[in-house]
Amino acid sequence: MKKINSLHIARFLQVAVIAYLVFVLLADIMKWQQLDDTQVTLAICLIVMTTDIFEKKQKKKKCSRKE
């Protein structure tokens, strides 16, 4: 069984959350549903967390290449 790379999972989560935010904002503009501030805040936090994961992984790769 192939080991799942956490970087791929983080990238998938980031894309999914961005798609969710776009849908929620369009839904609010079109008045399909009321905008829930809690869900939007959590989605933005998830984007920030996954971006942080990418930055840490890139720093580790740079450090391992220098050695």
UniProtKB/TrEMBL annotation:
Keyword Transmembrane among UniProt keywords: yes
Top-rank taxon, per record: Bacteria
Assigned keywords, A-Z: Membrane, Transmembrane, Transmembrane helix
Ranges that cross the membrane: 12-32, 38-55
Identification of the protein by name: Membrane protein
